[in-house]
Amino acid sequence: MAGKPKLHYTKGRGKMESIRWLLAAAGVEFEEEFVEAKEDLEKLRKDGALLFQQVPMVEIDGMKMVQTRAILSYIAGKHNLYGKDLRERALIDMYVEGTTDLMGMIMALPFQPPEAKEKNFALIIERATTRYFPVYEKVLKDHGQQFLVGNQFSWADVHLLEAILMAEECKPDILSPFPQLQAFKGRISNIPTIKKFLQPGSQRKPPADDKFIAQVKKIFNI
Amino acid sequence: MATKPKLYYFNGRGRMETIRWLLATAGVEFEEAEYLETRDQYEKLLKDGALLFQQVPMVEIDEMKLVQTRAILNYIAGKHNLYGKDMKERALIDMYVEGTMDLNEMIMCYPFSSPEEKEKNFALMIQRATNRYFPVYEKVLKDHGQDFLVGNQLSRADVQVLESILMIEEYEPTALSEFPLLQEARHLEAWLGNPNCTISMEEAEWKQYGGCWQQLESSLKNNS
C-alpha cells in the first residue's frame, strides 16, 4: 500500500500551493516536510533528492517528482481530473496556464522592488479583470455547464477557484463584473473535499507575510 | 483531409520554436501565418478574438485555436505518440522538458538583458546549462544506457533537450565537453532535421520589428 505523498517546500504558498489544492480536491491525504532554513535546502540537494536542485519536490508513488507542472499533471491524470480525451486535456491545459500566469504575478509581488510594487499591483488587477476572468466567464456562459471542461470536475476548476480567491485577497470585489464566476466560486467551494480544505486547520497556507518573505529570501538567496 | 497546422508568431524563435521542433519531429507539415511585424497585425488578431489570452504563440490545429506554449506542446506530443506510453513515463518526460523550458527561458531572455546585466546573465545561463541541466540528462542516459531519455523510444524530451543543447552551443561551443552521451545524442539532429529552422534572436535585424519590440518584450516578461 503506497504511503501518503510527501511535500517538500517552505511553509507558505509559493509554487506548492496549487499542488496542495489539487491533492486536497482529489481527496488525497498528504504529509509535509518544511524547508525552514538554507541548511534544509542544502541537505535535500546533497542527498540528491532534487533533480534540478529546486523545490517543490513531492515524493509520490516511489518517485521524487519535481517541477510544479509535472507534479500537477501527474496528480490530475492519476485522479481523473484531466479530462477524458486529448481535446479536453488541451482545454484544461490552456485554462490552467492562464490561471498559472495570473497567480504567478500575484505570487511575485512581495518579491519586487518597492518602486515597482504599485505598478505591478495595478497590472495584476487589470490582467485579472480584462484578460483572464472574462475568458472563464465566457466559457461558463457559453456552455452553461457547472464545470469548465467536459461537464465534469477537473484540475481547471480547482485552479480557477484558487486564482479567484487569491485575486479577491488583492481586491475583495474583483468578481463583481462576473456573475458566472461568482456562482462558480460558490459551487466549487461547496464540493466536500474543497470545502474541507477551505476550513481552518487544513493544510492550506496563508498569504505571505513580511516574516515569511524574509525567510524565503534568505533560503533561496533572492 | 485535415488542413496543416498554422502558426501565429513573430519571425523568430521565442516561444514558438519548440513547437516548430516538435511538429517537425512528428513529421507534420505546418504553415506559418504572416509574421507579426506591426502593432496593427496584432490588434487585428485581438479583434478577431483569435487569441484566448491576447497572447501568441497561437496555433490553429484540428479546428482549435490553441494558445499557451505548454498546452500546444502537450497536445502535439500526445497526438503524435511523443509523450511516453503511460503516466509514469509522462511524469519523467514532463520533469525533463520543464527543465529544458526553464533553461530556454534564460536563453530567450538573454538578448533582452540590459547592458549592465548582460555579462552576469550570460554566465548564469551557461552555468545553469552545464551545472544544473545537462548533468541531469547525461546521468539519465548513462544510468539506463538507452538511446532515448524515456521508455527506450523517441519522445518530446529528446527533441526538447536537443533544442536546448544546440541553442547553448551557439553561445558556448564547448558546452558539451563534459557530456559524452549528450554529444552522441546530437546525432538525432541529423535524422530529425529541422526544415523550419529560423534565425536566432541575436541574428535578427531588430529594427525590423519596430513597434512589435515592446509587445514581444512585454509578452515574454508576462509569460514568465
Write the layout of secondary structure elements.
The complex is a heterodimer of chains A (222) and B (224).
Chain A: E1 6-9, H1 17-25, E2 31-34, H2 38-46, E3 57-60, E4 63-66, H3 68-78, H4 86-108, H5 114-143, H6 155-170, H7 179-189, H8 192-198, H9 210-220
Chain B: E1 6-8, H1 17-25, E2 31-32, H2 39-47, E3 58-61, E4 64-67, H3 69-79, H4 87-109, H5 115-144, H6 156-171, H7 180-185, H8 187-192, H9 212-223
Parallel strand pairs in B: 1-2
Antiparallel strand pairs in B: 1-3, 3-4
Helix pairs in contact in B: 1-3, 1-6, 4-5, 4-6, 5-6
Keywords (chain A): Transferase
Domain GST N-terminal (chain A): 3-83
InterPro entries (chain A): Glutathione-S-Trfase_C-like, Glutathione-S-Trfase_C_sf, Glutathione_S-Trfase, Glutathione_S-Trfase_N, GST_alpha, GST_C, GST_superfamily, Thioredoxin-like_sf
What does it look like?
Chain B: Its EC number is 2.5.1.18. Chain B: One of its GO terms (molecular function) is glutathione transferase activity. Chain B: Keywords: Transferase. Chain B: It holds the Pfam family GST_N. The complex is a heterodimer of chains A (222) and B (224). Helices cover 57% and strands 7% of the residues of chain A. Chain A is built from nine helices and four strands, in the order βαβαββααααααα. The longest helix of chain A has 30 residues. Chain A is globular and about 50 Å long. Chain A starts with 5 loop residues before the first strand and ends with a helix. Chain B has 224 residues and is mainly α. Chain B folds into two domains: 75 residues, 3-Layer(aba) Sandwich (Glutaredoxin), CATH 3.40.30; 106 residues, Glutathione S-transferase Yfyf (Class Pi), Chain A, domain 2. Chain B is built from nine helices and four strands; from the N terminus they run βαβαββααααααα. In chain B, strands 2-1-3-4 form a four-stranded mixed β-sheet, with helices on one face. In chain B, α5 crosses α6. The chains are: A alpha+beta (222), B mainly alpha (224). The interface between A and B is medium-sized, with 30 and 30 residues.
